[in-house]
Amino acid sequence: MKRISSTGGNVNVLSIVFTAGLAFAVCGALAVLTVTAAPTAALAAGGTLRVALQTDIIAKQPHRLMEANFPWLLAVYDTLTRYDNTLVPQPALVEKYSWSADGKTLTLSLRKGVKFHSGRELTSEDVELNFKHLDSAKAASQLKPILGKITGFERPDAQTLVIKFKAPAPDFFDTAERMMIIDPKAIDAIEEGTGPQVGTGPFIWKEWVPGSKLVVERNPNYWQAGQPMMDRIEYTIVPNREAMTLTLEAGSVDLIVTPDAKDVLRLKSNAKYAVIPSTNQTPTMYLGAYVTAKPLDDKRVRQALNFAMPRQRFADTILLKLSEPNCLPWPKISPAYDEKLAKAYPYDLAKARSLLKDAGVQAGLAMNIGYSTGQKELKEFAVLYEQELNDLGLKVTIEGFEPAVFSTRVVNKQFKNLWLGVAEGAALYPASLLTQNNPWRAGNNTSDFRSDAFEDTVAKMSTELDPAKQKGLFARANQILIDESFNMPITNQPYFWVSTAKLSGLAFSKSNMIVFTKITMSK
Length: 523
Known about the structure:
The chain has 523 residues and is of the alpha+beta class. It folds into two domains: 4-196 and 495-521, Alpha-Beta Complex (Dipeptide-binding Protein, domain 1); 284-492, Dipeptide-binding Protein, domain 3, CATH 3.10.105.10. Helix content is 25%, strand content 24%. The longest helix is centred in the last third of the chain and has 18 residues, at 467-484.
């Protein structure tokens, strides 16, 4: 068996109005922003947290955003900043940051004394190298588009990084929120699978047995005084969801990630357990279509598929009313959410049949639907959806792929018909989803969908500072998404964690990554 082991608060803000990570004065002009963090008070620590995961971790690409890694990334790594509940970026590895008046220059001041698990002190050069690594083919990072907005880096000293932009970048802090800061000297070994993950996070990577377990231990030199609270985290891979829930009920683990909806409702009524819902109302479950393949190159066919979706039945019977149908990728907390367009495609087989007839689709047309075996609900949706498509005279084949294989196929555009997926990041600034997420981004997306109007809208969205103009751009992008239907949202996936009632302090980033620093276990 292969093992990889390692030997190794308070915020002061100027009086400004924030929107999507960038700050604006009330009068509408860009304000110079400075955010500074105060020291964190010391807290006690101790004990082992046992976590059960359904999907094995994917360790070679920590700059690539993959849901399978969300339960452990912020244990080993830190990010530059972290959003609060109002999407205002708060200091993390960056102690202070400031924008120039024109929004084209960002100065990041790093915390002094922060060390990688290797013992090296974090420097501005390390942060610059992390940004540049996003361009690496091996990184396969969805965050790479930020590099197209950056004209250069300057390092006045070891703790200061100045980033120059071509134009204002209102979505920059979405990258700062999700880019793990890796020790550049460890990246090659990580990508080759021969070395441990090396970050600055609250826990140090100790042992990984692929397909079985991951062990991380408390970082005694963590920059947040007195944190983390726990001494050790042990992750166990339990591929079956029902079995994963049973490990919690048997007392073998303390926390499980995304159990079945029926188990969420059942355990919610038991005082021995705590059900913790995500406040982010994300990710987005969707049906993707490869639009260069006939007949999916005709948007009327894609619109027909949209009208044939049994969204409400899926939400009621499979998700047990823990979520609502949504024809847009955005959750309700997003500034791009539109209540009317979220209902643009009500279930209507007659309308679907009419559109297929207009497009010249003949009965017996074969359709293939791929899905990740790590998403049980999507398989159940595929079964429901198959019935509707059969009623329309289509012949459907459903095929499951292991999560890592599915992710690779999405990134490399290997689905040539239909697939069911889950998209992260819709709760952040809307331009981030449409520039960074492989299935949804304008240009070079999984669907091979191209549109000058869409790409122009997203490009303007990525640099626009005026909130009123942003709103207009969001509306224009939504109209294109609804009309073209290259991706067809189903609902925002209900995201829950269930723990023993003894656990407290569990928190989450805006990308639904677990934050471990303040977790404690009572006796």
